[in-house]
Design goal:
Chain lengths: 477, 106, 606
Amino acid sequence: MLALLVFLPIIAFIAILLGAPARLTAIGASAVNLALGLFAAITWHNAGLWSFSIPVLEKPALNLAFGFADGMSAIMVLLSVIVTLAAVLSGKAPEGKEKLYFASSLLISAGAIGAFAATDLFFFYAFHELALVPTFLMIGMLGRGDRRAAAWKITIYLGLGSIVLLAGLVWLANLTGTYNMVEMVKGAEKVDPAAQKSIAALLVVGFGTLVSLFPFHSWAAPAYASAPAPVAMLHAGVLKKFGLYGLLRIAIPLVPEGLHYWLTPLLVLLLGNILWVGWVTISQKRLDLMLGNSSVMHMGYIFLAIAALIAFPENPLARSAAIVLMFAHGISIALLFGLTDRIERNTGTLDLQDLGGLAKSAPGLAFLFGIAAMASIGLPGLANFSGEVLVFLSAFKSYNGTHGLGPVQIACIFSIWGVVISAVYMLRAYRNIFQGPSVKATATAADLTCADRIPALLLILALFAVGLYPNLLLNLL
Amino acid sequence: MASLNDYLLVSGLLFAIGLAGVVMRRNIIIVFMCLELMLSAANLTLVAFSRFNPTPNGLPDYNGQMLVFFVITVAAAEVAVGLAIIVALYRARQTIHTDELTSLKG
Amino acid sequence: MNLAWILLFLPLVIAAANQLVLKKTGLAPIVSVASALATFVIAVLLLGEEKTAWFSWATIGDFSIDIGIKLDRLSTGMMIVVTGVGLLVHIFSLAYMKADEAKARYFTGLSLFMFSMTGIVLANNFIMTFIFWELVGLSSYLLIGHWYQKDSAADAAKKAFLCNRVGDFGFMVGILMLWGITGALSFDQMKGGLEAFQHANAPIAVGVLSAAILCVFCGAVGKSAQLPLHVWLPDAMEGPTPVSALIHAATMVAAGVYMLFRVQLSLGFENFEALPASTVIAWTGGLTSLAAALMATQQDDIKRILAYSTLSQLGYMVMAVGLVDGEAGMFHLFTHAWFKALLFLGSGALIYACHHEQDIWKMGGLLKKMPITGITFAIGTAALIAVPYVTSGFYSKEEILTAAYTHNKVLFGIAVVVAFLTTFYMTRAYVVTFLGKTRSENADHAHEVGPLMWIPLVLLAAMAIGSAWLTGPLNAIDPRIHAPEHAEGHLVILSCSIAALVLGLFTGFVLYNGKEKDPLSIPLFRNRFYVDGFYDNFLVRYFQDAFAAIIAFFDEFIINGLIVGGFSRAAESTGNIFRKVQSGSLQGYAFVFGIGVILVVYFTTF
């Protein structure tokens, strides 16, 4: 079953290259995968159903192995399949490029699912790299605006980040003597404290670059602004979570003391994400750049949960909080990028100055975008709020009033200001695009058709489900 | 009878001439011929060593001579491919002068 | 208990149904009104119940965030206000919004608001309060921005949301700190946790608790529009008038007071009293009431006058809570909700009759043309200015004055001045609007509104007079129950308030009767102490935007340009050096290769 989940997109990818109808194949494969992913999320406990292993090398023992080590993998896979279906449904390929467009989207999806389901360190890393290649290609070949520069930038940043990460991972694998991630965690005591510090630094910088941790963030906004919609949705929504997933899966169990050593710098950097990038976001004049920066900013909250977990390893809340927020952010940012693409297709511009009053001519779009914006602001009832409030609670879990505020709590208080910042830029954008009198670009803009709404509704359903009753997700853990 | 050193000297001279030709000549066909010259030098060395390093039963070490046959065969194939490339190159660029073939310049 | 859950979730279901199914059918308004009626009936049925029930909303290990309902005197009494005023506003809206093309969206917003407000009132823990706190912010945003094509409405909606968000920042921090201190999110367990904390950390308890309470108070400052976040409420009058009556006068803005009182109740009055935080709260309320009353004296838009009056009355309530006499505050909240809703709906009727004219100087003489509206408006005014013994406003204001008199004489002085100013500006508004002769064409054509509008007015007018006597049956908080009939200083307080009333009526009447335009002009008050301008121009434009632009500049040029760009340039120039080697000359390569071979042979052999 799990092999099917991972390889179905690859099979569809090959089928498309061999000449199958691109869009239909992609949608079909993603829909089947969504069903499989939902099933997986509910029944991931059943290791017999959801594990798969083929030996690849005898020595060192290397297996092409997949399985759900815990609910986190299952939830991330679920996130991947949901976003994938939405992405292929809402994407519109340029004339004659359908093959490349949909095949690449599927390959990104396969890489993400493979990375989240892999239990072997080598394939965990390799599948992520597999997904990056089509990402770069799509931005470079089918992007808009200054796509070449953006593609170069993301390639170099993520390439370098991956290399730093690889160094850390190989070091860890050598110390623990295995590539099997479950075994690695069991052998955590083999990682001596002296090495922990350096490995932790490598992992934080490596994974951090992939997640656009401040100050390694400047690839994100231009890349997302230039990327075709499915790529922006899949990368910002799913693939970017790989770094956070890696920190939670590998770094925290294996190098806790090393991470603790870097806690204060990490807190400063995550505040850089939330406040610094937050203000950068406020000053953006284009919607796509604004959203790109906002996705960088929101990573700060997940890092805050990770920091809370580092500071207080018995913290029961932090890990769950991080996972819920990863899921929520993935869905909401994918929704925003998908709808942004619609705005551009229907009005021809994303410049906030040139838009206004779009709610009059496209009420459906305005409604859906409004939900997405409110989710991103962290409004209760939508998934992001559940994640954020759990993150804040987890940061204060170790606070008992007697010792005053610790560094994590102080960082948390500053982070909460980010909630105000995101409201400022989101509402400003919504105000400029949808409200006020109609202008030239929007007066005759088309609204969404029913078919156009399906991907958005799919994502919104997920947002509401987790937002109204987060136990749905928490029970899967 | 010539000693091993004489053979090696000739072989060294042949190799030096070949290398000098490769480095100095501009016509790519000559360069190619000089390459063959260098291969011959290597062959000569192999045969010489084979002749002057008898096995315990008094016969020459035929391993070296075997290798020479391989080299000759591969060289023949190489000539075929190489000349074909040169012809193709001439068709494309109307020249076989190495000074004018510098598209690899960074 | 099931009834309470229905009370909470029915409006949500209705809102969802309206948006998803009924939008195009035209049934949405009727369905919403029916739901409001149903919730009112349920609220009445629930009177006197004292129970809690909850389910787990988010569970992680043994930690759990609950969605819970806490029924007690405070919450059931408040539900009567919310559903009662809500129902009348729904009915009024049927007529007021008759011609609006986005009726369904409007009623969806109203239902969503009813759901959120019910949630705040019934919440049994802080996280739930916060959840619904944000949701009322959303419904307020949606309803203020109902006419989103008007720039002013869209801006006002945004401003309201952002001001609330600033307050919520503090609120969230306060919730987290209180959680850390007491170890409890639920209101019921808070007191126990607090006492354990005080026992363990006596020296720092007052300071830490004060800080936490002040942070929580930030939330109330945002929602109840106290200084310095008061700027959004007058702008919120861009929304449809029934919305102003329900959300921005009677219920939502009072949620801050309600929440503070709930906290006070949960932590215990005696724990609250010793805190310096309570002094800060009292002064914030007092200063807000004074500043808002001063600003109200110079406004020309009838809704803005009422908005500033709301601010001022909210200041009273917050002051009472700060003086650790939250019961007086809640009592005033209860009476104020009815008569302020009445005044707003009355102004809505005026605006409707005068074809969306809001300037009082363009009205005039409307008492004769619209007698029902005129008389009910007069009753509302009388309640607001606290005409002794016959209006409900008198009793609740008296309680607040008593609280101020007992605890802080300076604040008492301020409260009396505010009472005078209230009478003055309401007299001004009434005289200019209803007496004299009409001063515009729109007002000339005005005539009495239909029964769907005047029936709610009449009912509210009855409540404006009677609510002070109905606190018993309606379960509202009433400090008079256990207070002595004539407390110390009773006569001083009574004479002060009557003097303020008479003086206000007299000056207002003399100054404004029969005038064509405002004889007074005080630019400082008219321009709202220039606070709005300061925020817009300084804080938003120069501070926030300029700051953001500077950060963006640094991001682009330092991080992206210098550091990252520096690395890339360094790599490029190193590459340029080695590029020279790549000559493209075949012989050059062969030569180097030869040299290399020779060197290798040399080093391996010799």
